[in-house]
Iron-sulfur cluster carrier protein (Tissierella simiarum), 277 residues
Amino acid sequence: MSNCNTCPSNNSCNKNKKECNIENNPRNKIKNVIGVMSGKGGVGKSTISVLIAKELKSLGYKVGILDADITGPSIPRLLGLKDKKATMSIDKEILPVETKDGIKVISLNLMIDNEDDPVIWRGPIVSSAVKQFWTDVLWGELDYLIIDMPPGTGDVALTVMQFIPISGLVMVSIPQDLVSMIVAKAVKMARTSDVKVIGIVENMSYIVCPDCNKKIKLFNGENIDNFLKEMDLELLGELPMIASISNLEREHEEVPKEIEESLKEIVIKIEKSLDNK
Ligand SMILES: Nc1ncnc2c1ncn2[C@@H]1O[C@H](COP(=O)(O)OP(=O)(O)OP(=O)(O)O)[C@@H](O)[C@H]1O
């Protein structure tokens, strides 16, 4: 199954071809794979994965989301797909579920009977499920596949970096020192694995005062500029903390107005970084 011609990295990677662990499904043609990672849990990876996918889709790209958060999958809910199920093709390939606006999605929660049943699997089984989402899902032709990574720098993150040809990672952080420290670990892990880090999105960066429109920083984490400099990272954008983010769960819900502009800028930077603009 391994084949450089059908690989999103398409011969531009530094991997020794003989030692490349990546298997590609020749029936898929995926141009760019973007991992959304943090290292830390609950900072907004899934939310930002969905927002980036929606923005790319609105620009006319063919987009898919692979929910690699096997034990805590939230993508189907965020896209209003909680009652949908993935099916099998006659060739025994997994067919992703499609949102009304055409984003293809695979998540373990689209394959189990009850979304609130826990997945009590050990690391290697979780990792092999993620690999299968890459090799056994019939994604078809995609311009961008967004991978919502699980929190942490453990087994699954390693599997994604070693077995899926990631074009670049978007790191998500919030302005707290503890979080920056853990995001730094994720950045270092990516660089050790020769995976490009596109840049960082600072989520829940501020709130906007409803009376005077002033931006108020809620957390007093270290200055992001110092962190960016230390880690040699690009800031893709800062997103405010807003209540309407939770509306994403409603089917058809658009990107909240308050973050439209910032999101556009984030996506333009991602496109440029992957040389698509
Ligand atoms: N900018 C924001 N403003 C307000 N709430 C937000 C924002 N971003 C995310 N949230 C909320 O924070 C919670 C965690 O978000 P999300 O599930 O996207 O994080 P995660 O990093 O994917 O979590 P996990 O590590 O569990 O996978 C959710 O309830 C989400 O609605």
